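Case 667 in the screening queue. Each case pairs one protein sequence with one candidate compound; here the compound is guanosine-5'-triphosphate. For every case the pipeline is the same: read the inputs, emit a complex structure as tokens, and attach any notable structural observations.

Predict complex for case 667.
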Amino acid sequence: MGLYRASKTLKQHKHTLSAILRFNQTQHHKLLLNPARSFCSHPRQNSNREKDNIDLTQYPPERIRNFSIIAHIDHGKSTLADRLLELTGTIRRGHGQPQYLDKLQVERERGITVKAQTATMFYKHKFNAPGINEDNESSSVLINLIDTPGHVDFSYEVSRSLAACQGALLVVDAAQGVQAQTVANFYLAFESNLTIIPVINKIDQPTADPDRVKAQLKSMFDLEPSDALLTSAKTGVGLEHVLPAVIERIPAPPGVISSSLRMLLLDSYYDEYKGVICHVAVVDGALRKGDKISSAGFGQSYEVLDVGIMHPELTPTGVLLTGQVGYIVTGMRSTKEARIGDTLYHSKSTVEPLPGFKPAKHMVFSGLYPADGSDFEALNHAIERLTCNDASVSVTKESSTALGLGFRCGFLGLLHMDVFHQRLEQEYGAHVISTVPTVPYIFEYSDGSKVEVQNPAALLSNPKKQVTASWEPTVLATIIIPSEYVGPVITLCSERRGQQLEYTFIDSQRVLMKYRLPLREIVVDFYNELKSITSGYASFDYDDSEYQQSDLVKLDILLNGQPVDAMTTIVHKLKAQRLGRDLVEKLKKFIDRQMFEIIIQAAIGSKVVARETISAMRKNVLAKCYGGDITRKKKLLEKQKEGKKRMKRVGSVDIPQEAFHELLKVS
Ligand SMILES: Nc1nc2c(ncn2[C@@H]2O[C@H](COP(=O)(O)OP(=O)(O)OP(=O)(O)O)[C@@H](O)[C@H]2O)c(=O)[nH]1
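Case 667 output:
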């Protein structure tokens, strides 16, 4: 049968291998690309009338396959997904939209998937698959494909998607071979007990070496070389074997048709016209339009107003049956009611709730403030709407003396933060200043109390209540590199206070290293640094780990003696002076000369660790207009006013917005 269930011994390696993120040059450029292009962000209603008549009752569980595509970033998941949708006629070939399932504008601009997407396909086959044996006649099988993100920040999306699947295609680039996130995703699928089908993709590349990749898959995951499919999602070679393998190797969903309805809520988003749309997987029983359902977690009851599948747009079917994945529209007013991982069931029945998902863990916190203070309500609205479509962000209100009213947001990682920021600007037209990202530290005070500090400015400087101990979060990082780069990578990790835990050759040319690193040290600039010292060949992933005791201090930035709360950071004592110097130098470059002298200082408590001075400017802008032309004077005053709008005033010093953005890159 060739099922790819990896052997138990692999579990022992679990803790030596987690994984994610490759930082090659291409990806870096993709992340920086920014052509303005606008696409709709969510599935629309299917206008094709033929598709409206799909009869799902013809698809009992044995004629259903649910699978996910998982891979390291850029190994070709979305391209492969598109080709499979074309092959089954779900979308038209050459429909002109790149990466059909990457629907968000930010996904298309950056060439990355940030949101898992589901699409239902119908495929005729003649294979002797378990449960489908109809005298060699072609039978139609309903296949749900879930495309998942590749970046470490979005691995939460991957684990959620896997809950609705019985199998996964583990896609590996034929030239790059196994990368850090291949390892992470393999273990996510393995621990979810999924059937894993290895797909070695991009075999059209001149540097492709499928045999080497097969050997890696065998040695690292115990996957049989003969079971690997060889494909090129670009040229189409080998694609005809993918869906037959899915049908033959992946088991049918295990639910019970005759049981009471149990649905797993996979995801939700807000649609302007329909309200909240929930993506669901029917685990047991059946759901029909008009049914009354309740949520186990939220305790509310709703009427099902619309139900259907994503084919690939929203396609009403009137029912969803055991093993099927689709969408429902109920009277939910806010996505806060649609708790991801919740169990939905018929209101009159009593059911055992499904296990659900672990809540998302916030790794990075940052303050988000309106660039113009009067836009607070608009930003509030934009954040509320966006969190409807990205429930993994935590939001609480906060205020800053420098920036006014704003929000403290928790993100899954730095890219997640960046993407959220970009979506606020692109999808809601919000202009936002973000403060230096920080990680959640724990501080103990002399009265024995312990607090988690998500905002450095909130750390007390109270002489009556001294800090007695502090802890910082750490990660278990996995780095895979060609062996010639081992030296520089070891140096980088020790500069970042890392502790080496493992060093293994995965084949004759590649090394896997495992480090414990403080999360703070990888939040800013670690990726870029790692990428640049390995010519883009390193791949990197991390799993969150325990807190470690650490000598932490609060580093304040002062302008003419006044602290700028939005620029405060928490840092390891040994690094405070260097960071203070970098921050002060950076600010000097970005703050313009003003009518008076400006002293910029970095300080730990009352001890100044770095200082720069910007000397006073003698004349104002109008002094350049030697009398005369009044319109010219007006223009200059207007320009000055415009410039001021983009400034934040701290005491008497005007700080341009760019200064805040630039500080993100230093700390
Ligand atoms: N030569 C070649 N290029 C491919 C093939 N499949 C995908 N690509 C290219 O590889 C790049 C990445 O492909 P994607 O499908 O976006 O990769 P992904 O794994 O979905 O990426 P993330 O969603 O960001 O993790 C794109 O430029 C594709 O055109 C292939 O078979 N051969």
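Case 667 observations:
- The longest strand covers residues 467-482.
- Residues 71, 73-79, 99, 111-113, 149-150, 201-202, 204-205, 232-234 surround guanosine-5'-triphosphate (CB under 6 Å).
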